[in-house]
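Progress against Task 2.4 (sequence-to-structure conversion) is shown through the following example record, which the project officer requested during the mid-term review.
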Amino acid sequence: MQISLESVEQDAASNPLSLVARRCNVETKPVLGPCLMGILLGLLGTLVAVLFIGTMQMTLPREQWGNSAAAGVSGLSQSALFFFAVILIPIFETFVGQVIPIEIARRLRANWAVSILISAIVFGCGHYLNGGLVHGISAFLGGAVFASGYVTVRWVGFWSGFLTAYTAHAVQNAMLLFVIARLVPSWA
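Structure tokens generated for the chain above:
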């Protein structure tokens, strides 16, 4: 099943983030543009995660949160944590949580919103199994942000879409592990 470039451009044009992608010059700057958009989306994802976790802290008893994802990496040095959680793991998770589900959905002719939803569900379920309820839902929300970046920039090229989603994921992990966890240690 072949997907035409015209249908990809039309689908991307209907995505609300298309204007942001164009302002980040993703077409003319194939590395810098997706990285810039990824940074913006990573900051947005961090804000969404902080708002969600803050809401859960006020409404859900801590024992129902499930395991903390940070607890599994607590024995690592800061440099090892940075390497694994910000550099290496987001590469794998971007392929598994964004690229594969979205590319399959695209081959099945799903629109961008359905592709993002499928990707976010896969991403959230994987994190739920690793970190419990709050981590799973937070990852679902973050996964939707990462998938939005991938879908928005995918029409420029596969690697541009990947770089956008990966950068957003890396920035969000860095912000949550190295900034937010220090500001609010009870969330770690």
